[in-house]
Amino acid sequence: MAATFLSNLSLDPLDPHFQTIIRPAPPKPPIITENDGLSAPAATALNAMLANQAASVGLGRAVDISLNRADGAEAANDLVARDRQLAASRMFASQWAQVLEDGTSYRAEAASQLITLGVGNVSISLTDARRLRSEILESGWTDPIPDMLTRYGIRGRRRKEVLAQMTARLYDTPALTVELADMLAPSALVAAEVEVIGALREFADRS
């Protein structure tokens, strides 16, 4: 998600609403409750992880919109409004960096609670992978995947592109076994987040 918003920053559309400072509006993730053997600590940990991810989305949007409004203000030669938007974007960037940093511990706790329940890894046989691929190619992606993308602000053409990319990757789907902790916090994701956090804090510290 962070990478998606950072890539959006380079598009720099002008936003004419530069007199207003945006308020972060995180999406509302689904609420997980105790059922089907899920413990209260596991539900709490999963809800905290999802809330952290939602906060990340909301702050990412706020940074994006604030920078676009700063561009709009500069184009209108309103330098006071531009500076207010830039200050807001730096504040949101600082908050976003902290949320991303906190996300590592939230994911680790969620994985720990699920492992305690015996959910140690996720296995997909080659037969199951091929069956899943056939079903998706025939009928398309069904909820909760499209609904989850919508909840996190990926809509319209962008959602179609993401689903198309996911479908294309199905052709290479192998049999696999993934440790739950690695699935929630793969090393590539953690490394990318460290870079994003550093970039956000560097931007937030600019005067």
Summarize this structure briefly.
The protein has about 210 residues and is mainly alpha-helical. It folds into two domains: about 1-120 and about 180-205; about 125-175, no CATH class. It is built from eight helices and two strands, in the order αααβαααβαα.
What report would you give on this structure?
Helix 1 (2-9) packs parallel to helix 2, helix 2 (40-75) runs antiparallel to helix 3 (79-116) and helix 3 (79-116) packs antiparallel against helix 8. Strands 1-2 form a two-stranded antiparallel sheet. By secondary structure, the protein is mostly helical. The longest helix has 38 residues, at 79-116. It has helices spanning 2-9, 40-75, 79-116, 126-139, 145-151, 156-169, 180-184, 187-204; strands at residues 121-124, 176-179. It contains eight helices and two strands; from the N terminus they run H-H-H-E-H-H-H-E-H-H. The model has no long low-confidence stretch (mean pLDDT 80). The protein folds into two domains: 2-119 and 181-204; 126-174, no CATH class.
